[in-house]
TrEMBL record:
Predominant place of localization: membrane
InterPro entries, per the entry: GspF/PilC (IPR003004), T2SS_GspF_dom (IPR018076), T2SS_GspF_sf (IPR042094), T4P_ComGB (IPR047692)
Domain Type II secretion system protein GspF, first and last residues per copy: 177-297
Full protein name: Type II secretion system protein GspF domain-containing protein
Membrane topology recorded in Swiss-Prot or TrEMBL: Multi-pass membrane protein
Homology family: Belongs to the GSP F family.
Amino acid sequence: MTYKNKQLGTTILSEISNGAPCNQILSLIGYSDTIVMQVYLAERFGNIIDVLEETVNYMKVNRKSEQRLLKTLQYPLILVSIFIAMIIILNLTVIPQFQQLYTSMNIQLSSFQKTLSFFITSLPTIIVVMLIIVSMLAIIMKLIYNNLNMLNKINFVMKLPLISGYFQLFKTYFVTNELVLFYKNGITLQSIVDVYINHSSDPFRQFLGKYLLTYSEMGYGLPQILEKLKCFKPQLIKFVLQGEKRGKLEVELKLYSQILVKQIEDKAIKQTQFLQPILFLILGLFIVAIYLVIMLPMFQMMQSIK
């Protein structure tokens, strides 16, 4: 056991001896804010066994969804890694040796072959430069993002292509799951607001709590308030309205959370399937370019010897 784990164990035992509640212990262990809040609410409203069971199921579903998403993204990442490894190995070993051979034997490459050779040998530099540019843009965007208030952060991310779609799906999934847990345990909107504002360390939850409080005091209902925030899918509002009408809000939201998991997975699979043929095409063109630069001059040399 490491020193850090021993120290954590000692801290937990000390907190338990001092009468610390379960939610505080879970926070020390490193559980997410969502789990800690649900346990806090269970302790506060007296339904801890049911909430713990529901929380375990929630964690299992999230874990399975994460694993499926990572599995979907693995293949394109492997292809990209193979491509980069091929470029580096060829530039460090094969290509310099063949270039030296052709120079020593006075073999003249065509203009097209020279262009391809220059492009292949320049690819590592091009990739490094592109990575530097992308990293710099990411740092600049991160600095801009950090200086915005939460509402402007949401509006900023929603303007970014590709990212905005996933951001909206994940935020909708996040709030849908939390509302399911809240309403399943009979927790009112006022209590949700209190928990988000006073018992959460997450900036988005605190913002959402204040936003709900402000507009609920103005007479707006939950669907109208959520509709004002552009980070949630419009379908969420429909499910909330339908759930309120039937008096089974947590059931409708539970169904919608399952739909959202499928939408996230389908979106990732669709974009991965779009990328795979492009990656295969790039790899194929790269292999053809290698043939034209290395093997074709070799065949020409062998024919001239004959």
